[in-house]
UniProtKB/TrEMBL annotation:
InterPro entries: ABC_transp_permease (IPR001851), LivM-like (IPR043428). CDD domains: TM_PBP1_LivM_like (cd06581). It is found in: Cell membrane. Keywords: Cell membrane, Membrane, Transmembrane, Transmembrane helix. This is Branched-chain amino acid ABC transporter permease. It comes from the Bacteria. The chain crosses the membrane at residues 21-39, 45-63, 95-115, 122-144, 172-189, 223-246, 252-285, 297-320. Its main location: membrane. It is a multi-pass membrane protein. PANTHER family: HIGH-AFFINITY BRANCHED-CHAIN AMINO ACID TRANSPORT SYSTEM PERMEASE, HIGH-AFFINITY BRANCHED-CHAIN AMINO ACID TRANSPORT SYSTEM PERMEASE PROTEIN LIVM.
Length: 360
């Protein structure tokens, strides 16, 4: 077992708890960079898809996992980021500024929407954001002059420093570009958690009344969390549309928002690693189901199979493993660290709640 002796506040907020952890994540990054040389183009495309899902999931993770605000409408912000990026690129703006502006615009719109929406709590907030996701479909159709409506839009070509990034002719370059975005988003996320803003997010998540008593502006903190969450999700939406090549209103249906929620719950709510684990499940599970139906059903399609499996998986994790895959790994690791002194009920869920929450 490794012990971390903290002798200053800087030790508590450093990027990695120790050098060994930094070395492990450094080796993982090197493996990710070398991945195009180790696998074929099909699996490289799937790995790129996993990273795009992870970027979008990190946005929702910041809101739900760190601030405790449930949103079922983040597919709308993925659509906004995608269309803003594509429209700016068609207007002649280079990819990098258009991509950054797409995140900024999505974040500002998200923060403005959060001002009235975040007066709601729990299931009421979820219903309000779900309504936003459903409305996004109609808004895209109504704004057909700019969005293409049901006919959709084709993704403009991506050019950075004179080099064109084409998914089909240069899959490795596309993968490295998405990997760079994912690494930057992870660093941004991690530094937010280290800052006072991240501590305020956690305080609001655990108890709004206690946070307010400690001087945290709850309304401002929620709006900031919603805006930052939407900005990151908008970047994921822009990558989704550009990776698909063509997109319309059906690309960003509310089913996408449900998949985002499932991804962070299955991966591990509140953990950066959980977003990547959940993204792998979301990306590869449909492929596994397709191969299974081909083998067992001789190519016969089963209507609703994917949605049923996703829903059942989500229910099972909520009931039996609410900390997700990463939480389960941490429990296994702790059990081996404490062996033979680990107790059977060491990870039993606490069913009590703060008395201050009764005043909400």
């Amino acid at each position: 077992m490794r012990f971390h002796f903290k002798t200053s506040y800087d030790h508590d907020i450093r990027l990695f708890p120790d050098g060994w952890t930094a070395a492990k994540y450094g080796a993982l990054l090197l493996l990710a960079i070398a991945l195009p040389f180790l696998i074929d183009d099909f699996f490289l495309g799937e790995a790129t898809n996993v990273l795009i899902w992870a970027v979008a999931g990190l946005g929702l993770m910041l809101l739900t996992g760190q601030t405790g605000q449930v949103s079922l409408g983040h597919s709308a912000f993925m659509a906004l980021g995608c269309y803003v990026c594509a429209i700016l690129m068609q207007a002649g703006v280079p990819f990098v500024p258009a991509f950054v502006l797409a995140g900024v615009v999505t974040g500002v719109v998200g923060a403005l929407i959060a001002i009235p929406a975040l007066r709601l709590h729990g299931v009421y907030l979820a219903i309000a954001t779900l309504a936003l996701a459903i409305l996004a479909d109609d808004i895209i159709v109504l704004l057909a002059r700019w969005t293409g409506g049901v006919n959709g839009m084709y993704a403009p070509p991506i050019t950075i420093l004179g080099y064109e990034f084409n998914r089909w002719t240069a899959p490795a370059a596309w993968y490295w570009m998405v990997l760079a975005v994912a690494v930057l988003v992870v660093l941004l996320y991690r530094n937010i958690l280290r800052a006072p803003m991240g501590r305020a997010f956690a305080a609001v998540r655990d108890s709004e009344i206690s946070a307010q008593a400690m001087g945290v502006d709850v309304a401002r903190t929620k709006a900031l969390a919603f805006g930052l969450s939407c900005a990151i999700t908008g970047l994921g939406g822009a990558l989704t549309g550009l990776f698909a090549g063509a997109f319309n209103n059906e690309t960003f249906s509310f089913i996408l928002a449900i998949q985002l929620v499932m991804m962070i719950v299955v991966g591990g709510l509140g953990f950066i690693q959980g977003a990547f684990l959940g993204a792998a499940v979301i990306a590869f599970l449909p492929q596994l189901l397709s191969m299974a139906t081909d083998q067992l059903g001789r190519g016969v399609a089963i209507p609703g199979l994917e949605a049923g499996v996703f829903g059942g998986l989500l229910i099972l994790f909520i009931l039996f493993e609410p900390t997700g895959l990463w939480g389960r790994w941490l429990k296994i690791k702790a059990w081996f660290d404490l062996f033979p002194f680990a107790r059977k009920d060491m990870f039993r869920r606490q069913k009590t709640y703060l008395k201050t929450e009764r005043l909400r």
